[in-house]
Amino acid sequence: MTKNLQQQIQEFYDASSGLWEEIWGEHMHHGYYGRTGNYKMDRRQAQIDLIEELLLWAGFKDADNKPQNIIDVGCGIGGSTLYLAQKFGSKATGISLSPVQVSRATARTKSAGLENQVQFQVADALEMPFADHSFDLVWSLESGEHMPDKTKFLQECYRVLQPGGKLILATWCHRETTSLAGELTAEEVKHLQEIYRVYCLPYVISLSEYRAIALECGFQNLRADDWSMAVAPFWDVVIDSAFTPQAVVGLIKAGWQTIEAALSLNLMSQGYNRGLIRFGLICATK
């Protein structure tokens, strides 16, 4: 990962993660609002439901096939990592570029009494500091969009996965360009570039491009799906809660970059509404 981008991502999450946890909780990802996005529910429950729905979709339906050793790539403050470790009674490791996130995730692990089961470390997902075949589940929930080399990212996921192990990837994508809508328009490209700038993303690709890369890396039994409708309401919920007195005070303390990200939440909401932003899923085995 290029140093400049790596530093941008680190600084963004160092500054914003504390506020996110204070206002929105430990899960730094979308929520699930039913397949067509019409469920009305608490936002935090929707985020837990997303984890559970992903596990069901990926085939973790009973205790017989539960993972034993999980890597959470782009772990935030450990929301998913701890949830999965507690659910399955498994070992889990989370990595992030943000020392602030890793420190907070480690503190939360100690509070939960899971120090012997769960660990966190600062690491680059494009050069993971783990031996080949280390994990039987690679979990990546909304981190792929930050990767400047999507092929290298999936190659690393494949490398650290045990034979027979499973990848669950959920990531921001742009719409397909092979349909009647054609290539991205100049206006769509401009919209995406604003999202990239605000949220420290190098670029996003379509779900079909992710599928092709995963297959080239050697993944098998691949399934892909688009859950854009199911998660799109999340952004409107976040916008509604972003400008309460508590949130405004927190934004001021967090600094301009976090303020700009909050002011730009509508970029994602509008992106979903126009069909430009998509929420893509990949599940595959090694």
UniProtKB/TrEMBL annotation:
Location of the Methyltransferase type domain: 71-169
Record has Transferase as a keyword: yes
Keywords of this entry: Methyltransferase, S-adenosyl-L-methionine, Transferase
Pfam families: Methyltransf_11
Keyword ATP-binding: no
CDD domains according to UniProt: AdoMet_MTases
Coiled coil location: none
Region of interest (SAM motif I), ranges: 70-79
Region SAM motif II, annotated ranges: 133-141
UniProt record, GO biological process: methylation
SAM motif III: annotated span: 160-169
Top-rank taxon: Bacteria
EC number in record: 2.1.1.95
UniProt cross-references to InterPro entries, sorted A to Z: Erg6_SMT_methyltransf (IPR050447), Methyltransf_11 (IPR013216), PiNMT-like (IPR025774), SAM-dependent_MTases_sf (IPR029063)
Gene Ontology MF, one: S-adenosylmethionine-dependent methyltransferase activity
Similarity comment: Belongs to the class I-like SAM-binding methyltransferase superfamily. gTMT family.
Protein known as: Tocopherol O-methyltransferase
Source lineage: Bacteria, Bacillati, Cyanobacteriota, Cyanophyceae, Pleurocapsales
